[in-house]
Amino acid sequence: MTLAGLSVAGARRALAAAFRDAGLDTPDLDARLLTADALGLDHAGLVSQADRVLAPAEAARLAALADRRLAREPVARIRGRKEFWGLDLAVTPDVLVPRPDTETVVEAALALLPDRARPLRIADLGTGSGALLLALLHERPAARGAGTDLSTAALTVARDNAAALGLAGRAGFVACHHGAALAGNFDLVVANPPYIPTADLAGLAPEVRDHDPALALDGGPDGLDAYRAIAADAGRLLRPGGALVVELGIGQADAVTALLAKQGLTVAAPRPDLAGIPRALAALRP
Fold first, then answer.
1. Strand 238-247 to 278-284 pairing
2. Same domain? 196 vs 227
3. CB atoms near residue 20 (< 10 Å)
């Protein structure tokens, strides 16, 4: 698209209109974030410089970002950043972009462990960018944690995010399948496992299908493979009285509840996300 001769505000409006016409979900937000990134402005700068005409190089740079979004590349991928639980996280093609729905897992975990001063041990299985682990360590300053992932590239992203947030001293990362390399005795285990049935991957939105790593999406034929593995290992990983909190895919609450209960865990009612969809499931080791 062409933005030459437009003001900062005019370019932002042009992006929002183009994104809206393309059927994108959040056209105004996408336009604001990309305009701010292209011009190196914060929200106050967007307001104070609203009437300034874009320099040719700025117009070209912003147009290039807009074209990427119109091609259905997610804004977080374009920016290389995503906010999660108020934390600014780097994201690369090696990790899942953290979703607001996943904050429901953080909410459920914090509700189970309300004492901020308690010296907790936390494990995040399939940590990706480190979002869950780092959010929990941020909220529980006496806690220490370990994040696992099969992808060593993802673990590099998580380590870098931990360092950038000043949490590297309390967070360790290890390459393994779920909790296979962990010794156990954790107060809390969290996971946002891959839960999309394999046959459903092709029908996902392009932003997800074409840009999130398949390793973080593919849950096997029925979407439950990762839950089976996590449930089978939960008794070893958790100390007595410890809690497991997992994110759920749509319609999976009953099946995952059954898997966890079969392993002797006491399962609570699922916690809904902001859309009312059961999104986080907590279970306690007796």
1. antiparallel
2. yes
3. 15
Q: Give pLDDT, residue 273.
A: 96
Q: Are 15 and 133 contained in the same domain? A: no
34 with 155, same domain: the answer is no
- 28 with 140, same domain? no
Residues 164, 126: one domain?
yes
Cα-based angle 188, 190, 191 (whole degrees, multiple of 5): 160
Q: How many CA atoms lie within 13 A of 266 on its CB side?
A: 7
CB 133 within 8 A of CB 145: yes
Q: Fill in the amino acid letter for 222.
A: D
Amino acid at 195: Y
Using CA atoms, how far apart are residues 252 and 255, in angstroms rounded to an integer?
A: 5
Which domain covers residue 223, as residue numbers?
Answer: 83-284
Secondary-structure percent of the chain, ordered helix, strand, coil, rounded to 5: 45, 20, 35
Give percent above pLDDT 90 in the chain: 99
In a domain, 2, yes or no: no
pTM: 0.94
